[in-house]
Description:
By secondary structure, this protein is of the alpha+beta class. Helix content is 12%, strand content 31%.
Amino acid sequence: MIYYTVYDSGGKKISDCGSELDAKFLAEQRKGTYKTNRIEDWFHTIEVEPINLKLCAVSIDCKKVEEQKKLPIQQQQPLEL
């Protein structure tokens, strides 16, 4: 797999691009350069499983605020037009 790293005129990394055309365009816009990178073992598959998290409480200024269980009761009467 090949990807391209783009650097600005000061040598600071700006971005990684999958397309040489995109890398060349970005380098020209920033008056910088780009470098070709190769990954030899790109064929490995990584499986990512989502983590199911449930919010139980929130702390504000170190004080625990319980999870809101229902909507608040409306305090104001509806506006009649």
